[in-house]
Amino acid sequence: MPYHIIIFGGSGFTGQYVVEEVARTVSEGPSGTLRWAVAGRSKAKLEKVLEQAAGALSKPELRTVDIIVSDVKEPDSLAAMCKQAVIVLNCVGPYRFYGEPVVKACVENGAHCLDISGEPQFLEGMQLNYHSEAAKKGVYIVGSCGFDSIPADMGVLYTRDQFRGTLTAVESFLTASAGPEGASVHDGTWQSAIYAAANGASLRSLRRKFKYQPLPVVGAKIKRRSALFYSNEVQQYAVPFMVTDPSVVKRTQRFLAEEQQESPVQYGAYVGVGGVGNIIKMLVAGMMFMLLTKFNFGCNLLIKYPEFFSFGLFTKAGPTKSQDASFQFAFYGEGYTEGKDPSQGKPDGKIRTLVQGPEAVYVATPIAMVQAALTILNEPNVLPRTGGVYTPGAAFGKTTLIDRLHKHGIQFSVK
Protein backbone atom coordinates (compact mmCIF):
# COMPACT_ATOMS: atom_id res chain seq x y z
CA MET A 1 0.00 0.00 0.00
CA PRO A 2 1.29 3.49 -0.78
CA TYR A 3 0.02 4.86 2.58
CA HIS A 4 -0.25 3.50 6.10
CA ILE A 5 -2.87 6.17 6.91
CA ILE A 6 -5.19 8.38 4.87
CA ILE A 7 -7.08 11.08 6.78
CA PHE A 8 -10.43 11.49 5.03
CA GLY A 9 -12.05 14.84 5.78
CA GLY A 10 -8.73 16.43 6.69
CA SER A 11 -10.05 19.95 6.19
CA GLY A 12 -13.04 19.52 8.53
CA PHE A 13 -13.20 20.88 12.07
CA THR A 14 -11.76 17.78 13.75
CA GLY A 15 -9.88 16.55 10.69
CA GLN A 16 -7.43 19.46 10.78
CA TYR A 17 -6.41 18.52 14.34
CA VAL A 18 -6.05 14.86 13.33
CA VAL A 19 -3.69 16.01 10.55
CA GLU A 20 -1.51 17.77 13.13
CA GLU A 21 -1.56 14.76 15.46
CA VAL A 22 -0.49 12.37 12.68
CA ALA A 23 2.32 14.79 11.77
CA ARG A 24 3.54 14.68 15.40
CA THR A 25 3.62 10.88 15.54
CA VAL A 26 5.27 9.79 12.26
CA SER A 27 8.17 8.22 14.17
CA GLU A 28 5.71 5.84 15.89
CA GLY A 29 4.71 4.07 12.69
CA PRO A 30 5.95 0.62 11.62
CA SER A 31 9.78 0.55 11.62
CA GLY A 32 9.80 4.13 12.89
CA THR A 33 8.18 5.69 9.85
CA LEU A 34 4.69 6.56 8.63
CA ARG A 35 3.52 7.08 5.06
CA TRP A 36 0.37 9.18 5.07
CA ALA A 37 -1.87 11.39 2.97
CA VAL A 38 -4.89 13.64 3.39
CA ALA A 39 -8.13 13.31 1.43
CA GLY A 40 -11.33 15.27 0.88
CA ARG A 41 -13.44 17.14 -1.63
CA SER A 42 -11.39 20.32 -1.93
CA LYS A 43 -7.71 20.23 -2.82
CA ALA A 44 -7.40 23.94 -2.00
CA LYS A 45 -8.80 23.49 1.53
CA LEU A 46 -6.52 20.53 2.19
CA GLU A 47 -3.51 22.53 0.97
CA LYS A 48 -4.48 25.27 3.41
CA VAL A 49 -4.69 22.77 6.31
CA LEU A 50 -1.24 21.41 5.48
CA GLU A 51 0.12 24.94 5.25
CA GLN A 52 -1.33 25.80 8.67
CA ALA A 53 0.01 22.58 10.20
CA ALA A 54 3.46 23.23 8.72
CA GLY A 55 3.50 26.64 10.42
CA ALA A 56 2.00 25.51 13.74
CA LEU A 57 4.40 22.57 14.13
CA SER A 58 7.43 24.18 12.43
CA LYS A 59 7.49 21.28 9.96
CA PRO A 60 7.83 22.75 6.45
CA GLU A 61 7.87 19.22 4.98
CA LEU A 62 4.12 18.99 5.67
CA ARG A 63 3.51 21.21 2.65
CA THR A 64 4.50 18.24 0.46
CA VAL A 65 2.18 15.65 2.04
CA ASP A 66 0.15 13.94 -0.69
CA ILE A 67 -3.43 15.06 -1.30
CA ILE A 68 -6.17 12.76 -2.63
CA VAL A 69 -9.39 14.29 -3.94
CA SER A 70 -12.28 12.09 -2.81
CA ASP A 71 -15.96 12.79 -2.24
CA VAL A 72 -18.35 10.80 -0.06
CA LYS A 73 -20.99 11.21 -2.79
CA GLU A 74 -18.72 9.67 -5.46
CA PRO A 75 -18.23 5.93 -4.76
CA ASP A 76 -15.50 5.54 -7.40
CA SER A 77 -13.40 8.22 -5.73
CA LEU A 78 -13.86 6.52 -2.33
CA ALA A 79 -12.83 3.16 -3.81
CA ALA A 80 -9.72 4.69 -5.38
CA MET A 81 -8.79 6.24 -2.01
CA CYS A 82 -9.35 3.03 -0.02
CA LYS A 83 -7.22 0.97 -2.41
CA GLN A 84 -4.24 3.13 -1.44
CA ALA A 85 -4.58 2.90 2.36
CA VAL A 86 -3.91 0.38 5.11
CA ILE A 87 -6.17 2.50 7.37
CA VAL A 88 -8.64 5.28 6.59
CA LEU A 89 -9.26 7.74 9.44
CA ASN A 90 -12.78 8.94 8.65
CA CYS A 91 -13.41 12.44 10.02
CA VAL A 92 -16.46 13.26 7.88
CA GLY A 93 -19.66 13.63 9.93
CA PRO A 94 -22.45 13.58 10.84
CA TYR A 95 -21.82 9.89 10.27
CA ARG A 96 -25.57 9.22 10.14
CA PHE A 97 -25.53 10.91 6.71
CA TYR A 98 -21.98 10.46 5.44
CA GLY A 99 -20.47 7.48 7.26
CA GLU A 100 -21.81 4.39 5.51
CA PRO A 101 -20.33 5.00 2.02
CA VAL A 102 -16.86 5.18 3.60
CA VAL A 103 -17.36 1.95 5.59
CA LYS A 104 -18.69 0.21 2.46
CA ALA A 105 -15.73 1.37 0.34
CA CYS A 106 -13.23 0.31 3.02
CA VAL A 107 -14.73 -3.17 3.38
CA GLU A 108 -14.96 -3.70 -0.39
CA ASN A 109 -11.41 -2.49 -1.03
CA GLY A 110 -9.57 -3.96 1.93
CA ALA A 111 -8.81 -0.88 4.05
CA HIS A 112 -9.32 -0.77 7.81
CA CYS A 113 -11.45 2.17 8.97
CA LEU A 114 -11.57 4.17 12.19
CA ASP A 115 -14.09 6.90 12.98
CA ILE A 116 -14.85 9.24 15.87
CA SER A 117 -18.63 8.85 15.78
CA GLY A 118 -20.74 9.40 18.88
CA GLU A 119 -23.89 8.17 17.11
CA PRO A 120 -25.13 4.76 18.36
CA GLN A 121 -27.53 4.29 15.44
CA PHE A 122 -24.70 4.63 12.91
CA LEU A 123 -22.26 2.52 14.92
CA GLU A 124 -24.69 -0.33 15.53
CA GLY A 125 -26.09 -0.13 11.99
CA MET A 126 -22.59 -0.64 10.60
CA GLN A 127 -22.13 -3.67 12.85
CA LEU A 128 -25.42 -5.15 11.67
CA ASN A 129 -24.78 -4.54 7.97
CA TYR A 130 -21.02 -5.00 7.54
CA HIS A 131 -19.61 -7.21 10.29
CA SER A 132 -19.85 -10.48 8.32
CA GLU A 133 -18.34 -9.07 5.13
CA ALA A 134 -15.56 -7.29 7.03
CA ALA A 135 -14.76 -10.55 8.83
CA LYS A 136 -14.45 -12.38 5.50
CA LYS A 137 -12.17 -9.65 4.10
CA GLY A 138 -9.99 -9.35 7.23
CA VAL A 139 -10.94 -5.66 7.54
CA TYR A 140 -11.24 -3.99 10.95
CA ILE A 141 -13.92 -1.29 11.23
CA VAL A 142 -13.62 0.36 14.64
CA GLY A 143 -16.07 3.12 15.55
CA SER A 144 -16.09 5.73 18.32
CA CYS A 145 -12.30 6.07 18.49
CA GLY A 146 -12.27 9.61 19.93
CA PHE A 147 -13.40 11.08 23.25
CA ASP A 148 -16.53 9.12 22.37
CA SER A 149 -15.80 6.43 23.55
CA ILE A 150 -12.18 5.39 24.11
CA PRO A 151 -11.78 6.86 27.63
CA ALA A 152 -14.98 5.19 28.87
CA ASP A 153 -14.62 1.86 27.06
CA MET A 154 -10.92 1.37 27.74
CA GLY A 155 -11.42 2.82 31.25
CA VAL A 156 -13.86 0.03 32.14
CA LEU A 157 -11.39 -2.58 30.83
CA TYR A 158 -8.53 -0.95 32.73
CA THR A 159 -10.61 -1.00 35.94
CA ARG A 160 -11.43 -4.68 35.39
CA ASP A 161 -7.76 -5.55 34.77
CA GLN A 162 -6.60 -3.67 37.89
CA PHE A 163 -9.19 -5.32 40.16
CA ARG A 164 -7.94 -8.43 41.93
CA GLY A 165 -10.85 -10.76 41.45
CA THR A 166 -14.06 -10.61 39.38
CA LEU A 167 -15.27 -7.06 38.68
CA THR A 168 -19.07 -7.04 38.37
CA ALA A 169 -20.16 -3.39 38.08
CA VAL A 170 -18.68 0.04 37.34
CA GLU A 171 -20.10 3.55 37.51
CA SER A 172 -18.25 6.39 35.80
CA PHE A 173 -18.49 10.09 36.64
CA LEU A 174 -17.25 12.59 34.07
CA THR A 175 -16.19 16.05 35.15
CA ALA A 176 -14.59 18.71 32.97
CA SER A 177 -12.74 21.90 33.76
CA ALA A 178 -12.84 24.86 31.40
CA GLY A 179 -9.95 27.21 30.72
CA PRO A 180 -10.00 30.97 31.38
CA GLU A 181 -12.00 31.56 28.18
CA GLY A 182 -14.69 29.10 29.20
CA ALA A 183 -15.62 25.96 27.27
CA SER A 184 -17.49 25.46 24.05
CA VAL A 185 -18.11 22.50 21.78
CA HIS A 186 -18.38 22.48 17.98
CA ASP A 187 -21.98 22.27 16.78
CA GLY A 188 -21.30 19.06 14.83
CA THR A 189 -21.65 17.25 18.17
CA TRP A 190 -24.87 19.19 18.85
CA GLN A 191 -26.29 18.11 15.47
CA SER A 192 -25.50 14.46 16.20
CA ALA A 193 -27.40 14.74 19.51
CA ILE A 194 -30.40 16.33 17.75
CA TYR A 195 -30.60 13.57 15.13
CA ALA A 196 -30.17 10.88 17.80
CA ALA A 197 -33.01 12.30 19.94
CA ALA A 198 -35.28 12.69 16.92
CA ASN A 199 -34.66 9.09 15.80
CA GLY A 200 -34.81 7.19 19.09
CA ALA A 201 -37.50 4.84 17.75
CA SER A 202 -35.31 3.82 14.78
CA LEU A 203 -32.47 2.88 17.15
CA ARG A 204 -34.77 0.66 19.20
CA SER A 205 -36.01 -1.00 16.01
CA LEU A 206 -32.42 -1.53 14.81
CA ARG A 207 -31.42 -3.17 18.10
CA ARG A 208 -34.26 -5.67 17.87
CA LYS A 209 -32.73 -6.99 14.63
CA PHE A 210 -29.69 -8.31 16.50
CA LYS A 211 -31.98 -10.68 18.49
CA TYR A 212 -29.66 -10.43 21.48
CA GLN A 213 -30.19 -12.49 24.61
CA PRO A 214 -29.86 -10.42 27.82
CA LEU A 215 -26.32 -10.40 29.20
CA PRO A 216 -26.00 -12.42 32.41
CA VAL A 217 -25.85 -10.30 35.58
CA VAL A 218 -22.98 -11.29 37.86
CA GLY A 219 -23.19 -10.06 41.46
CA ALA A 220 -25.63 -7.41 42.65
CA LYS A 221 -27.67 -5.76 39.86
CA ILE A 222 -26.43 -2.21 39.36
CA LYS A 223 -28.84 0.42 40.69
CA ARG A 224 -29.81 3.12 38.22
CA ARG A 225 -29.59 6.58 39.75
CA SER A 226 -32.26 9.26 39.40
CA ALA A 227 -32.36 11.84 36.61
CA LEU A 228 -30.70 14.42 38.90
CA PHE A 229 -28.84 13.71 42.13
CA TYR A 230 -26.05 15.02 44.33
CA SER A 231 -22.99 12.84 43.76
CA ASN A 232 -20.71 12.29 46.75
CA GLU A 233 -18.23 10.80 44.29
CA VAL A 234 -17.62 14.11 42.47
CA GLN A 235 -19.05 16.49 45.10
CA GLN A 236 -21.54 18.12 42.76
CA TYR A 237 -24.91 17.48 41.13
CA ALA A 238 -24.86 14.83 38.41
CA VAL A 239 -27.13 13.41 35.72
CA PRO A 240 -27.04 10.26 33.58
CA PHE A 241 -24.52 10.71 30.74
CA MET A 242 -26.83 10.42 27.72
CA VAL A 243 -24.20 9.85 25.06
CA THR A 244 -22.79 6.89 23.19
CA ASP A 245 -20.52 5.58 26.00
CA PRO A 246 -23.07 3.25 27.68
CA SER A 247 -24.01 1.59 24.37
CA VAL A 248 -20.36 1.18 23.32
CA VAL A 249 -19.35 -0.28 26.70
CA LYS A 250 -22.29 -2.70 26.61
CA ARG A 251 -21.32 -3.86 23.11
CA THR A 252 -17.76 -4.47 24.31
CA GLN A 253 -18.97 -6.43 27.33
CA ARG A 254 -21.22 -8.51 25.06
CA PHE A 255 -18.26 -9.29 22.78
CA LEU A 256 -16.11 -10.32 25.75
CA ALA A 257 -18.89 -12.52 27.18
CA GLU A 258 -19.88 -14.19 23.91
CA GLU A 259 -16.55 -14.43 22.09
CA GLN A 260 -14.08 -14.78 24.97
CA GLN A 261 -16.33 -16.25 27.69
CA GLU A 262 -15.39 -13.46 30.11
CA SER A 263 -17.63 -12.27 32.92
CA PRO A 264 -19.51 -9.14 31.72
CA VAL A 265 -19.29 -5.91 33.73
CA GLN A 266 -22.45 -3.83 34.32
CA TYR A 267 -22.00 -0.12 33.60
CA GLY A 268 -23.66 3.15 34.54
CA ALA A 269 -22.45 6.52 33.20
CA TYR A 270 -22.97 9.93 34.82
CA VAL A 271 -21.70 13.47 34.31
CA GLY A 272 -21.21 16.20 36.87
CA VAL A 273 -23.17 19.38 36.11
CA GLY A 274 -22.00 21.63 38.95
CA GLY A 275 -24.21 23.76 41.17
CA VAL A 276 -27.79 25.04 41.22
CA GLY A 277 -27.26 27.74 38.55
CA ASN A 278 -26.07 25.15 36.05
CA ILE A 279 -28.96 22.85 36.92
CA ILE A 280 -31.53 25.55 36.11
CA LYS A 281 -29.87 26.21 32.74
CA MET A 282 -29.69 22.50 32.01
CA LEU A 283 -33.35 21.90 32.88
CA VAL A 284 -34.52 24.77 30.66
CA ALA A 285 -32.24 23.71 27.78
CA GLY A 286 -33.19 20.05 28.25
CA MET A 287 -36.94 20.74 28.17
CA MET A 288 -36.61 22.88 25.03
CA PHE A 289 -34.40 20.24 23.41
CA MET A 290 -36.76 17.34 24.14
CA LEU A 291 -39.79 19.33 22.94
CA LEU A 292 -38.21 20.65 19.74
CA THR A 293 -36.66 17.33 18.64
CA LYS A 294 -40.20 15.92 18.31
CA PHE A 295 -40.80 18.12 15.22
CA ASN A 296 -38.88 18.77 12.00
CA PHE A 297 -39.19 22.55 12.35
CA GLY A 298 -37.94 22.22 15.95
CA CYS A 299 -34.87 20.26 14.83
CA ASN A 300 -34.15 22.91 12.21
CA LEU A 301 -34.37 25.65 14.85
CA LEU A 302 -31.97 23.79 17.14
CA ILE A 303 -29.51 23.29 14.27
CA LYS A 304 -29.71 26.93 13.19
CA TYR A 305 -29.22 28.46 16.66
CA PRO A 306 -27.02 26.10 18.70
CA GLU A 307 -25.59 28.85 20.91
CA PHE A 308 -29.00 30.16 21.95
CA PHE A 309 -30.57 26.79 22.75
CA SER A 310 -27.50 25.41 24.58
CA PHE A 311 -26.73 28.57 26.58
CA GLY A 312 -23.46 29.01 24.70
CA LEU A 313 -22.10 25.48 25.23
CA PHE A 314 -22.32 24.56 21.53
CA THR A 315 -21.14 27.03 18.89
CA LYS A 316 -20.62 26.99 15.14
CA ALA A 317 -17.00 28.08 15.72
CA GLY A 318 -16.25 25.38 18.31
CA PRO A 319 -13.48 25.61 20.91
CA THR A 320 -10.51 27.90 20.43
CA LYS A 321 -6.96 26.59 20.68
CA SER A 322 -6.30 28.70 23.76
CA GLN A 323 -9.01 27.00 25.82
CA ASP A 324 -7.00 25.28 28.54
CA ALA A 325 -9.63 22.65 29.30
CA SER A 326 -9.38 19.09 30.63
CA PHE A 327 -11.57 16.10 31.49
CA GLN A 328 -11.60 13.40 34.15
CA PHE A 329 -13.51 10.13 34.30
CA ALA A 330 -13.67 8.61 37.80
CA PHE A 331 -14.60 4.91 37.74
CA TYR A 332 -16.05 3.30 40.87
CA GLY A 333 -16.09 -0.47 40.59
CA GLU A 334 -17.19 -3.34 42.78
CA GLY A 335 -16.76 -7.07 42.58
CA TYR A 336 -15.67 -10.27 44.27
CA THR A 337 -12.09 -10.47 45.51
CA GLU A 338 -9.81 -13.36 44.52
CA GLY A 339 -11.03 -16.69 45.82
CA LYS A 340 -14.62 -15.53 46.36
CA ASP A 341 -17.45 -17.16 44.40
CA PRO A 342 -19.35 -14.51 42.36
CA SER A 343 -22.51 -16.62 42.60
CA GLN A 344 -22.48 -16.48 46.42
CA GLY A 345 -23.31 -13.43 48.54
CA LYS A 346 -22.69 -9.74 47.89
CA PRO A 347 -19.59 -8.21 46.22
CA ASP A 348 -16.86 -7.67 48.82
CA GLY A 349 -14.29 -5.57 46.95
CA LYS A 350 -14.15 -2.01 45.59
CA ILE A 351 -11.81 -0.10 43.27
CA ARG A 352 -11.49 3.49 42.06
CA THR A 353 -9.64 4.42 38.88
CA LEU A 354 -9.21 7.62 36.90
CA VAL A 355 -8.85 8.47 33.23
CA GLN A 356 -7.66 12.05 32.84
CA GLY A 357 -6.84 14.00 29.72
CA PRO A 358 -6.71 17.33 27.91
CA GLU A 359 -9.52 19.18 26.12
CA ALA A 360 -11.86 16.55 24.69
CA VAL A 361 -12.60 17.70 21.12
CA TYR A 362 -9.47 19.05 19.49
CA VAL A 363 -6.77 17.48 21.70
CA ALA A 364 -7.95 14.19 23.25
CA THR A 365 -10.00 13.01 20.26
CA PRO A 366 -7.14 13.26 17.71
CA ILE A 367 -4.73 11.62 20.17
CA ALA A 368 -7.13 8.71 20.75
CA MET A 369 -7.88 8.23 17.06
CA VAL A 370 -4.25 8.34 15.92
CA GLN A 371 -3.03 6.05 18.71
CA ALA A 372 -5.78 3.57 17.81
CA ALA A 373 -4.56 3.60 14.19
CA LEU A 374 -0.92 3.15 15.26
CA THR A 375 -2.01 0.21 17.43
CA ILE A 376 -3.54 -1.54 14.39
CA LEU A 377 -0.39 -0.86 12.34
CA ASN A 378 2.04 -2.02 15.02
CA GLU A 379 0.13 -4.80 16.78
CA PRO A 380 -1.94 -6.70 14.20
CA ASN A 381 -1.34 -10.04 15.92
CA VAL A 382 -3.25 -9.11 19.09
CA LEU A 383 -6.38 -7.77 17.40
CA PRO A 384 -9.48 -10.02 17.33
CA ARG A 385 -8.95 -13.23 15.33
CA THR A 386 -11.01 -12.05 12.36
CA GLY A 387 -11.87 -8.69 10.89
CA GLY A 388 -15.27 -7.20 11.63
CA VAL A 389 -17.05 -4.16 13.02
CA TYR A 390 -15.82 -3.63 16.57
CA THR A 391 -15.91 -1.28 19.53
CA PRO A 392 -12.55 0.07 20.78
CA GLY A 393 -12.62 -2.27 23.80
CA ALA A 394 -13.30 -5.32 21.63
CA ALA A 395 -10.62 -4.38 19.10
CA PHE A 396 -7.90 -3.15 21.46
CA GLY A 397 -8.50 -5.00 24.74
CA LYS A 398 -5.36 -7.13 24.35
CA THR A 399 -3.12 -4.41 22.86
CA THR A 400 -0.94 -1.71 24.42
CA LEU A 401 -3.35 1.10 23.48
CA ILE A 402 -3.71 2.24 27.10
CA ASP A 403 0.09 2.56 27.43
CA ARG A 404 0.23 4.48 24.14
CA LEU A 405 -2.50 6.87 25.31
CA HIS A 406 -0.74 7.31 28.65
CA LYS A 407 2.45 8.46 26.90
CA HIS A 408 0.43 11.06 24.97
CA GLY A 409 -1.35 12.65 27.94
CA ILE A 410 -4.51 10.54 28.37
CA GLN A 411 -3.62 8.95 31.68
CA PHE A 412 -5.02 5.88 33.41
CA SER A 413 -4.42 5.36 37.14
CA VAL A 414 -5.71 3.55 40.24
CA LYS A 415 -6.63 5.81 43.17
What is the topology?
Elements: E1 3-8, H1 15-24, E2 36-40, H2 43-57, E3 66-69, H3 75-82, E4 85-90, H4 95-98, H5 100-109, E5 112-115, H6 120-137, E6 140-142, H7 150-162, E7 165-177, E8 185-186, H8 187-198, H9 200-208, E9 229-231, E10 236-240, H10 245-260, E11 266-274, H11 276-292, H12 296-304, H13 306-309, E12 314-315, E13 326-337, E14 349-358, H14 360-378, E15 388-390, H15 392-396, H16 401-407, E16 411-414
Parallel strand pairs: 1-2, 1-4, 2-3, 4-5, 5-6, 6-15, 7-11, 8-12
Antiparallel strand pairs: 7-13, 9-10, 10-11, 13-14, 14-16
Strand content: 15-25%
Poorly predicted runs: none
Please work out how many helical segments DSSP would assign: 16
Largest sheet: 7 strands, parallel
Mean pLDDT: 92
Helix percentage range: 40-55%
- Could you give the count of β-strands? 16
Global geometry = globular
N-to-C span: 44 Å
Structural class call reads alpha/beta
Strand order of the largest sheet: 3-2-1-4-5-6-15
Compute the CA-based radius of gyration: 21 Å
Question: Please, could you describe this protein's structure?
Answer:
It is built from 16 helices and 16 strands. It has 415 residues and is an alpha/beta fold. Helix 1 (15-24) packs across helix 2. The longest helix has 19 residues, at 360-378.
Which structural traits does this protein have?
42% helix, 16 strands, Saccharopine_DH-like_oxidrdct, 22% strand, seven-stranded mixed sheet, Saccharopine dehydrogenase-like oxidoreductase, Sacchrp_dh_NADP-bd, alpha/beta, 415 residues, 16 helices, NAD(P)-bd_dom_sf, seven-stranded parallel sheet
